[in-house]
Each structure stands twice: as structure tokens, then as C-alpha cells.
Amino acid sequence: MSHAQAADGAALHYDVLGSGAPLLLLTGQSNNHHWWDAVRDRFAAHFTTVVMDWRGTGASDAPDTDTYSTQNFARDAVAVLDAAGIDRAHVYGTSMGGRVAQWLAADHSARVDRLVLGCTSPGAPHGVERGPAVRKALADPDPDAARAALLDLMYTPAYTATHPGPFHTLGDPAMPPHARRRHLRASARHDAWDALPRIAAPTLVVHGTDDDFNPTANAPLLAERIPDARLLLIPGGRHAYFEEYADVATPPVIAFLDGS
User: What is the pLDDT of residues 75-107, one digit of tens each?
Assistant: First the structure.
């Protein structure tokens, strides 16, 4: 277990695995680094993978302060790269991690080699928000019903019928309530629209075609807004396309990161 120190002194847990060019893998909102467990070995066979626990999750500190924003999470990611002795890395961010990756590439361009943005959005002011039925299901006062709704948004029924879990994309159960609220607010307030044209890193935008949690319509918005970005849609994929459809999604991502 290794820790970096953020600008405000918060300890940030990170882990390194594999060999080759550095690849920073960024997780979704209110999740820790286990988000990548199902596919990390595939990337570690080609790259030196770095995963981290956001502040408020996993083994990182959870200060109850106004330091939770996608832009500040990007600064935290830079602190992790510094602690790991990495000057420049490929970055693959999914969901809120993709929102953070947008700021990382725009504000810290010297640290980003190639960029992959998965199942993410430019932010509410210009992005496509999830529908009211999805919001209502996720807000169900019955925690079991809310979890079932989230599971259905992440994976197809065919996948969950044959994969009993555990599912590491459903949130960090050990998060303190204040951190969970601050993560939700940070993701909801994300707006990188004006910064996207500043992204100079070669960029691949990936999204499942059946993603209702973060609607697929956000993918072409990002691809059109970021100079020379490429778009890859995964047929049938929901929000956790990178796990359920790893056999389809991972090879082209690796090829892109390798410069193929």
C-alpha cells in the first residue's frame, strides 16, 4: 500500500501493477480502485497500471472539507503520479473518472500522453442527463431496490445471471456519508465544456450503446468537442461496458494506447 499527499495534506492511496508505459486508471463516483479489478490484469500485461482511491474512498483520507470537485480530483491524480515517480502517463477514466480525466488532460497536459474517456459526460450544462425514471429508481427509499436498479444500469440481465459478483462498480460501502454527498455534488457540478478544445492528447471516446445511467448521446458530444478525437461505441454495453464487454472493448483501447 502506497500513499501520495495531496496539496491540502490528504493522504491518497494508490497501487502500481504491471510493466511498460504508465497507464493511470480512474474510477467512477463514490468508488475505490477495486472498480478496475475485473480487467486490470489485461492492462497490466501491457502497461504499468496505476489505480487510486479518490479522497473519501478506500484507504484514502476523507476530509469533510470543500475539496471535492472533478478539477481538484485531477490535482489529486497529479499528486499520485508525482508520488509514483511518473512524469507522463496514458489516462483511462470511466464515468466520473472520465470527467476527472478531462480536467487532467486540459489543465495538466504535460502529464497526459494518450487519453481514453469511457462512459462519461462533458457535464450537465452541455451534456445529456439521465432520464427521470432512472433518477427515481436510484432514489428509491428501499436500499435493496435502489441497488437492483443500479445493477441493472451497469450490466445486462444476461451477465448478472451468470456472474454472481461481487460487483465493484456499485459504490464503496465503507464511504462515510459526508464523502458520498460530496462525491455526488462534485460529479453533478462538473462542466469542462469550455476546456475540452484545449485537450491536445490523442483521445478515444468509448461508450456502451445501451447506457442509460450516463446516456450514450454524451459520447459524440465529447468526440466532436475534443480536437481529432475518435469514437468507439460498444454494441449492447451498459454503464460497466468495460467489464461486461471486456473482450470487445479492451483490445481496441490497448491498441489505441499503443499508438496503433
Answer: 999 999 999 999 999 999 999 999 999 999 999
Query: pTM to 2 decimals?
Result: 0.97
| pLDDT digit string, tens, across residues 217-230 | 999 999 999 999 99
- Hey, what amino acid is at 240? A
Residues 97/30, Cβ–Cβ less than 8 Å: no
CA 84 to chain centre: 20
Q: Which residues pair with 233 in a beta bridge?
A: 207
Angle of helix 70-83 relative to helix 177-188, nearest 10 degrees? 110
